[in-house]
Amino acid sequence: MSGWNAGDIPDQGGRTAVVTGANSGIGLVTAQELARRGARVILACRSEARGKQAQEYLARQVPGADVQFRPLDLAELSSVREFAASYPYERLDLLINNAGVMALPYGRTADGFETQFGVNHLGHFALTGLLLPKLLDTPGARVVVVSSFMHALANIDMGDLNSERRYRRWVAYSRSKTANLLFVHELARRLVAAGSDVVAAAAHPGYADTNLQTAGARLEGKKTTERFMQAGNRIMAQSAESGALPTLYAATSPGVRPDSFTGPKLGWRGAPAPSQRAKWTRNDTAGERLWVASEQLTSVTYEGLKA
């Protein structure tokens, strides 16, 4: 893994990938590199305008690439269901659960979930479950969930998943990223128990220069905070190209193990390497409890993957 970079991505010819949040940042780079290696890539994005702009950009960057935009709003379960129901192919080799929001003011999704928990975890939980039959029917398929090193700041609170008692934006974000890792832990366990060769793994980009850091401040009109975050990106962050490498490694490198967690070697930047994770993200009981709660909240049941 030492020094691994985009040039090490194996040929992806004949494979189909879905990348959520592929219109910018880590998702856009991930889609570009998969397309460059021959994969058919579906850009699953909330904004039609930005999704089509990304499709046009990738067509210029990778001439001849098979890149398609399809609408997906992870903050609305009906949109998730529509995306899955209209998925047009028999196989699905790679599901990259990349999209996310960070440190937003308190809000709720269309289905009443706290926004960060709803988008970052529940939307992707529902999407993965609805696309599971395609994944199970595709030899060597993988699910990669993009978490964050900031998961280590907070464990989930099973008694307050939607932060109804008290909302602290960074705690809520960290809990949603812990939920990502618990989801991968439980999904990997169930896949192995079912005898499936589908690999569920997690990755994080470290501190990468994307729009994620400034979205909350921009939404609230806090110009000073937005400029501060932009300055931090310029000084400390690695590029989106570098930040996408752990995701690409987890998605394509041979020998990636179920429930592995790949991030930058130095924690916040560097080449892909095994990443440290909080011990609570490997807790079987917590993983199963979150899974059951997620099925109840989304009304999505993973047929064929029992406890």
Structure notes:
- The protein has 307 residues and is an alpha/beta fold.
- Helices cover 43% and strands 12% of the residues.
- The protein contains ten helices and eight strands.
- It has helices spanning 25-36, 48-61, 77-85, 115-136, 169-193, 212-220, 223-236, 240-243, 245-252, 284-298; strands at 16-20, 40-45, 67-71, 94-97, 142-146, 199-203, 261-264, 272-274.
- The chain has an eight-stranded mixed sheet, with helices on both faces.
- Helix 4 (115-136) crosses helix 10.
- The relative contact order is 0.15.
Detail the topology: elements first, then pairings.
Blueprint: E1 16-20, H1 25-36, E2 40-45, H2 48-61, E3 67-71, H3 77-85, E4 94-97, H4 115-136, E5 142-146, H5 169-193, E6 199-203, H6 212-220, H7 223-236, H8 240-243, H9 245-252, E7 261-264, E8 272-274, H10 284-298
Helix pairs in contact: 3-4, 4-5, 4-10, 5-10, 6-7
